Q: What sequence folds into this?
């Protein structure tokens, strides 16, 4: 326990170092060295009534996000990418208070060397694949291609703490050995360990594979094994068959042990030993070019009993250039003791090359009422305008009737800017 | 009364949506040209008669669609008669062609030379009157350009200019049809590098970042067509979703995420004066709703309010010598020996050395 303040200090230091290093290099390298720089800037203004503490507060959050990516190409390495993405916000509780916040989503330097045989990425990033799944990490990831398709990925760092939530661990490390037979066929063996409060919070071994024996058939398999509990935390197998471009079938089976998704340092990880099975299929159909139908149905079996989830969605394109779409969706979830039916209808319209409108109605009908109400309804409407020179303006209104709020109206206005600046035409 | 009003609201919404879709499908989209490839082909017109500039094109950047002057070489009479609707879908609102960014490195000049001006070698399907343009599929390319090594290595840059900025959904092998949002993890877990060929980490971060400013539905309200999992009244159904698939929630949200909100709502063990959300018989051992049975069936549900480490109210009853007895599942002792108490400090919340 005595080590926790030290760990916190180290974590803060590491975060500060990463952020500082990333920001500094982005500014310096991006402007001075980059062959191309891409910017994404978004300003978002929302407004809603927030009933709490017996009063209705008028809350107006203002968000500002900024994303930038610089690409540098030189003869002595393959490529270097510097990626920064973050946001800041102020939440105004009109007449009462204001709350400032902000964070960095991504901030890393990624370099490829020796004809892409070696890739090194340092900073705030995602580690994808295998036992790591999609872990957000402040640290380093290295991938080395050993021989032909055989390679190894190793990573280590500090898991990013979710906003408004407790730490997901003090340290995380692991690796994945893979054989990439082709672009679509790969097999991997991976290990992941998360340390929390001086103990192993997770310790997993995973085997994953994807095999495409024919362009129309894809098979995937994934098994996650929790080493301390000597049990399978997740097993997932699927097959997708595409007889032609207008038809697609899928079948999948997934077993999870939900208790193994609790961190091992939670007291609740010692109380239960659950299994949950889900098996079902999907179908995609495009009988005519203007009509797309998608349906799925899965049986769910857990310790509470058997249930089902599924739905069907149809989208029809209208107009001379398919500029209007109308979609209807019906979904259901049936559990042994509860469930709901969802009905959704929405449409999108490109009224003009620069103007885009969406309308939507979304309802849920609950088997067991909440707060005496067995339904909810959300209506949405959006108008988007391409202003030119990379600017886009979006205005959206939401109206809700739910079991938790009698009536709610919310608006969002977004101004987005996207630009790519190429300084040198270089290709490798 | 409220249910009655909701029914009216629903009916009105459905009618409004269908009416808007029907009306806008007639008037929207702006002007476009009603050119029919099949009619021109039946007239035995060579492609290059209309698309002349493509003959020498070294890249896809440029104007290759025929200008009005080209059309008038044959259709001047229609224009003189004022039959604008013969070619234009909406002559009252004329527009220029929308120039799309070129996404491929391709020389039409070289291809035309090698195919001896047989455009149908690549353009196997052509759009007809009222249809959107149809680009050749990648199979058309692979018929003449076997590039297995590049494909295996994911080296797409020879043809695809920038898959990250102008992503093109693959038709086969990595089909994105149907609800790909729900199933994309299957591909991403085993072929992460292949995903990275087209998708930047920023696209992962939009949903998966722990630091994200808010739900993606708020960030991209205009994406009505996306199958986003928290769309609509997720708060109203979150208890059902978490019961149906607890692991899906726990992958992104720790129990502290649930507990924070449940504390504010006064249903968490941490709340000052918690309301009791449990059913009758929750503390009666022989009752079907007994909390021990509920915990065995769905422990994440318990953790969403009571996960406070040694201060958890489970500890007070279930510690060694407590009223609750051993809470461990039957096979627990087969996998955990007493030595673990020495190694794992959490065990000492209940066990003594």
A:
């Amino acid at each position: 326990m005595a080590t926790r303040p030290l760990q916190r200090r180290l974590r803060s230091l590491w975060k500060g170092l990463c952020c500082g290093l990333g920001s500094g290099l982005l500014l310096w390298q991006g402007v001075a060295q980059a062959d191309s720089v891409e910017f994404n800037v978004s300003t978002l203004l929302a407004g809603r009534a927030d009933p709490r503490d017996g009063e209705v507060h008028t809350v107006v959050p203002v968000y500002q996000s900024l994303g930038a990516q610089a690409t540098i190409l030189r003869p002595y390495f393959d490529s270097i990418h510097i990626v920064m993405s973050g946001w800041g916000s102020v939440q105004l509780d009109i007449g009462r208070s204001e709350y400032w916040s902000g964070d960095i989503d991504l901030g890393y330097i990624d370099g490829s060397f020796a004809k892409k045989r070696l890739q090194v990425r340092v900073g705030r990033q995602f580690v994808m694949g295998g036992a790591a799944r999609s872990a957000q990490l402040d640290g380093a990831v290295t991938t080395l291609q050993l021989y032909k398709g055989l390679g190894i990925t190793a990573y280590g760092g500090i898991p990013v703490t979710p906003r408004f939530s407790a730490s997901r661990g003090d340290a995380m490390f692991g690796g994945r050995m893979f054989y990439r037979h082709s672009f679509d066929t790969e097999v991997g063996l991976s290990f992941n360990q998360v340390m929390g409060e001086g103990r192993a919070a997770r310790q997993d071994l995973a085997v994953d594979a994807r095999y495409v024996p024919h362009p129309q058939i894809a098979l995937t398999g994934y098994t996650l094994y929790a080493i301390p509990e000597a049990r399978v935390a997740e097993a997932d197998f699927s097959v997708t068959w595409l007889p032609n471009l207008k038809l697609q079938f899928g079948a999948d089976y997934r077993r999870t042990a939900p208790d193994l998704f609790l961190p091992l340092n939670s007291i609740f990880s010692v109380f239960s030993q659950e299994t949950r099975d889900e098996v079902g299929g999907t179908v995609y159909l495009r009988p005519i070019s203007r009509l797309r139908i998608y349906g799925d149905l899965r049986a769910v079996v857990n310790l509470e009993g058997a249930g089902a989830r599924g739905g069907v969605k149809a989208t029809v394109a209208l107009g001379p250039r398919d500029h209007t779409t109308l979609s209807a969706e019906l979904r259901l979830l049936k559990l042994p003791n509860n469930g709901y039916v969802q009905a959704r209808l929405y449409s999108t319209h490109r009224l003009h090359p620069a103007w885009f409108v969406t309308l939507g109605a979304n309802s849920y009908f609950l088997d067991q009422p909440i707060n005496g109400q067995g339904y909810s309804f959300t209506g949405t409407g959006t108008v988007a305008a391409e202003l030119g020179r990379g600017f886009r303006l979006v205005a959206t209104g939401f109206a809700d009737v739910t079991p938790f709020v009698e009536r709610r109206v919310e608006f969002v206005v977004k101004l987005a800017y996207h630009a790519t600046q190429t300084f040198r035409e270089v290709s490798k | 009364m409220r249910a009655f009003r909701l029914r009216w609201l629903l009916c009105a919404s459905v009618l409004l949506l269908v009416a808007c879709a029907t009306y806008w499908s007639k008037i929207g989209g702006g002007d476009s040209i009603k050119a029919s490839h099949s009619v021109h082909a039946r007239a035995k017109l060579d492609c290059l008669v209309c698309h002349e500039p493509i003959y020498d094109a070294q890249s896809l950047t440029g104007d290759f669609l025929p200008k009005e002057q080209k059309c008038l070489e044959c259709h001047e009479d229609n224009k003189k008669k004022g039959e604008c609707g013969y070619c234009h879908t909406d002559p009252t609102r004329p527009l220029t062609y929308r120039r799309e960014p070129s996404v491929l490195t391709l020389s039409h000049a070289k291809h035309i030379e090698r195919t001896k001006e047989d455009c149908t070698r690549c353009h196997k399907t052509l759009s007809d009157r009222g249809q959107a343009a149809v680009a050749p599929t990648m199979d058309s390319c692979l018929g003449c350009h076997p590039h297995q090594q590049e494909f295996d290595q994911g080296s797409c840059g020879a043809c695809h200019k920038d898959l990250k900025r102008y992503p093109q959904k693959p038709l086969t092998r990595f089909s994105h049809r149907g609800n790909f949002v729900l199933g994309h993890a299957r591909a991403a877990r085993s072929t992460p590098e292949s995903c990275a060929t087209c998708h930047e980490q920023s696209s992962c971060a939009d949903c998966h970042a722990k630091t994200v400013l808010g739900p993606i539905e708020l960030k991209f309200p205009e994406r009505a067509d996306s199958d986003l999992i928290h769309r609509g009244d997720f708060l109203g159904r979150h208890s059902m979703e978490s019961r149906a698939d607890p692991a899906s929630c726990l992958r992104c949200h720790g129990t502290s995420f649930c507990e924070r909100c449940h504390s504010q709502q006064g249903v968490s063990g941490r709340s000052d004066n918690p309301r009791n959300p449990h059913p009758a018989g929750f503390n009666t051992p022989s009752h079907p709703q007994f909390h021990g049975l509920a915990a065995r069936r769905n422990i994440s549900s318990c953790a969403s309010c009571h996960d406070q480490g040694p201060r958890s109210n489970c500890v007070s009853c279930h510690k060694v010598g407590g009223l609750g007895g051993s809470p461990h599942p039957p096979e627990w002792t087969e996998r955990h020996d007493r030595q673990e108490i020495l190694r794992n400090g959490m065990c000492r919340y209940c066990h003594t050395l």
